[in-house]
Each structure stands twice: as structure tokens, then as C-alpha cells.
Amino acid sequence: MKTVFHQANSRGYADHGWLKSYHTFSFANYFDPERVNFGALRVLNDDHVAGGMGFGKHPHKNMEIISIPLAGKLKHGDNMGNGGIIEPNQIQVMSAGTGIVHSELNGSAHDPVKFLQIWVIPHTEEVSPRYDEIQLNAKDSKNKFQQIVSPNPEDEGAWIHQNAWFHIGRFEKGEQNTYQLQDPNNGVYAFLIDGKIKIEDQELSKRDGLGVWETSAFNIEILEDAHLLLMEVPMN
After folding, report:
1. Which of 92, 108, 91 is nearest to 100 (CA)?
2. Where a domain ends, among 135, 168, 192?
3. 216: which of 8, 115, 184, 186 fits an S-S bond (Cβ 3.0–4.6 Å)?
4. What is the pLDDT at residue 226?
5. Mean pLDDT throughout 41-60?
6. What is the mean pLDDT of the segment spanning 74-92?
7. Are 93 and 180 members of one domain?
8. What pLDDT is recorded for position 235?
9. How far are the Cα atoms of 90, 155, 181 from residue 116, in angstroms, in the given order?
10. Residues 27 and 114 in one domain
11. Cα dihedral sign for 229, 17, 131, 139?
12. What range does the domain containing 62 cover?
């Protein structure tokens, strides 16, 4: 098993006033040649957007984009006619493909919105752009992993153009779990949204990240109540 550990305070940081964003991997003005990506996982941004503000219309191409709201209201609009607001326990997925123009705004004039913005490099380029959102049942992630992304449109959760699986879980202190990789050639990037855990011999605290690869499974011990996101992606 190989691992790479990224402490929360080692991430890139940008403060634009209305936007405070932490970058696990190189993004915008933050560049670290050792932290460009983890396999097909290219971007993991922890964004906090002030009330009444947001990202205006901008383009994307040939990228799978997953947004996970953690607090507040995230308002979406795009040039395909999609629009609406998503909140915690909802997931938004876009396949940018040949090109998409969209906006991501705070759906509240006063309260901040906090969300994870994740980009995955697709296995196929120039696909038709698409938009999807799903509703999660919080009960399905209590002390177990709930699948929220997969490569299969018929499977649980949303789907993307990549051999990738995302799972999310909320665990109580004292719980133990083993994550079995869907594909042993993949790696898993674990991002601890909140709490304290141990993966094998590595302890993680809030907003720490750990990449694990060259293994078919790994053990997770919950040291404090925890909210955990696992992103399994191809390494090549």
C-alpha cells in the first residue's frame, strides 16, 4: 500500500472577500508540482461563498464536475436550460464534454454557502454535455458508506464518464469500517469533512486528505464522530 497525506493547513488558499477557497490540488494561482492531481482526481476545492455572491457565467470543457453542498443554498444555471438550488444531502454532476457555460451562485442573499467543488478527468473527451442532480437520504449514510457517484447510469447515485466511485458516510465514534475498492487498480482519496479518524496507521482531522493506492482494501477507525468522503479514481 502506498499513501500520501495532505494536512488541512497545507492546502492552497485564496481569499477574494466574497469567496474563500481552499485548494487540495493546484488550482488558479496556487501551484505545487507535487500536488497537481491524484490520478484522475484533478480538483478538490473547499469553497465558502458570501451571501448574494457567486461565480458568474463561465465555460468548462472535457471535465466531470461534482458539487457537494455542505451548508446553505447553491444556485445553478447553465446554457442547456438547467437551473435551480441544491442544498446539503443533494449532489450535482455535470459532464462538460464539448463545452458548457454555467454559473454557481449563493442562493441566499445573507447566509454563506459552503460546498466542495470536485473535478475528475474523464476517460472519454468531447461527449455531449449533460447535467444531473440527485437527492440523498441521510439515513443511508449513517455508520456506512453511501454511493453517490459511479460509472454506471443504472447504479446508485449519479454517474460520470470515468471508472470512479464516490462514497460518503457519517460515522459515530467507535465505529470501524473496511473500504473495498471497486477496482484494485484504482486509488482512493479520503477527504475528512469533519471529525477525527484513522485510516490504517494515519490519523486524519477535519479537512485532512489521504490518498491510498496499490491495495484492494483499507481499514477505517472512527476516533470522533466523523463525516467522510471517499473518492475512488483510476491512477493512470
Report:
1. 92
2. 135
3. 184
4. 98
5. 97
6. 96
7. no
8. 98
9. 12, 22, 23
10. yes
11. positive
12. 12-135
